[in-house]
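Example 3.2
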Amino acid sequence: MSFKAPLGDLLFQLQHVAGLEQVAALPGFEDGVGELAEPILDEAAKLAEERFAPLNELGDKVGCRLEEGRVVMPQGCAEAWSEFMEGGWKALPFPTEIGGQNLPWTLTFAVNEIWFAANLAFSNCPLLTQGAIEAIHHHGSADLKRRYLRHLTEGRWTGTMCLTEPQAGSDVGAVATKAVPDGDGFRITGTKLYITFGEHDLSDNIVHLVLARLPDAPEGTKGISLFAVPKYVVDAEGGIGARNDVTCLSLEHKLGNHLSPTCLLQFGEAGGAWGELLGEPHDGMRCMFTMMNQARLTVGLQGLAIAERAYQQARAYAGERIQGRRGGQRVPIVEHPDVRRMLLTMRSQIEAARGLMLTAGAALDASRRHPDGVVRSRMRGRVDLLTPICKAWFTDLGVEVSSLAVQVHGGMGYIEECAAAQHYRDARITPIYEGTNGIQALDLVGRKMHMANGELPWQLFEELRAELRVFEQESADDLVPSLRTALANAEAATRWVQGDHGTDADAVAAGASAYLRLMAMTLGGFTLTRGARAAAAADHGLAASKRLTATFFVQQLLPPAAALLPAIVAGSATLDDRLFAA
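Structure, written as tokens:
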């Protein structure tokens, strides 16, 4: 089935939920940024629909191949990448002085959703490169930025993130890759696995951002440094020199995402790969988190995007597949209540997630550009709080919605020729990417709940309480009760997480995933209600559908999420380790 970018909802949510007009007014953006949204999205949709989407099924069936250490991408990929590069799409949010277009992240997130929905696997390459640009721009020396950044923003070079090692997994503190000083650089030796687009033939060079240890490094995460290690050595003028000592040993055979080469890389087979320090010695985790936090938000966006792609296919099939009777007539399956339930479960969560994602983008822009330092600080905290929620909820949603899409197709959905199964297979990696969703939940209840003296969630709740009072004044009787209950339960759960849990050391961790889900669904309900209210006030053409979607979510999906409170405060007793004894 062909893909169509959801331009109508993207524009609506940008303008009426995320507040693009206010974002565009932030210092540093050129006049007219808000007016650029529609033409930019239109052009992105054309490239996505005409170039990226046709490669999706082909890439799944053909995949990439490894020939003597060189990854060869399927036919059509080089042409698609060339058009993407020539259009300057990778450079949207970055400063003009490094080759960027200085556009808001809010708008960039909307554009990225289109790429990801059209072809999730292929879009991994620009996703990681954007993260590499962020890390180098924030932490690189002036000389390193001069030689690397413009090549990356213009798409001639791409970037990777090299954290994982066979013995370490998510335990980054166990990284064993070594970095030994050698003149004005370092020699890197070690093995990294699961490196997305670690080798390919789309760009002239690949810049690997590698976590490694200096000879005097202390143990654990405090002893990790970050290095820029290019596929081809970069000379003093930023030109490409000799092939570096980086070898792709193999490609992983995966459940999905076959168009995205996942590589096992060896650094230093012949004495050590040349690299340059990024940031200060032993400060690699802080530098890498610049890239990782960006990647976590963007991976969340991938989950949302694959949900949109799967929903489109399920909705189209439900409208065409004739089966069963209503009123004595054979009808398309979309006429049956349970199919409509599944479709609305998909659609309402997608729209809630899209609004929350773009709202997070607006907070990100404000955290960097707002003229008031207090507001900037508050919005930095908001992005910190929303990042694990967006990453975990949206990627879980991608799996849930793509699974429901298979269900809507019935037996045909289980057949590969139908292509619904591909979305399910492709989506399944996203809850694992960039820290599993369990790690996201632990980050939320651990670090994020105690930042800024524990005020981050309460600042958000204060804003939601104010919104709730507005909803109540407008007599939205069918929406307010569930929103009120969910918010009260989220506040009660937060008080418990922040200190009312007693002496059970594992109590908070045991309920972390349930807490994240409660927070996510509560925010989703408010986001949809906000959108429905804005559409009605503007007499927007989407007003009726926005109201219906919000009502379904708030009445059907939010109550079970609000009921997670007992599970959150139950403690760890039910996780008795005797159940898992050998």
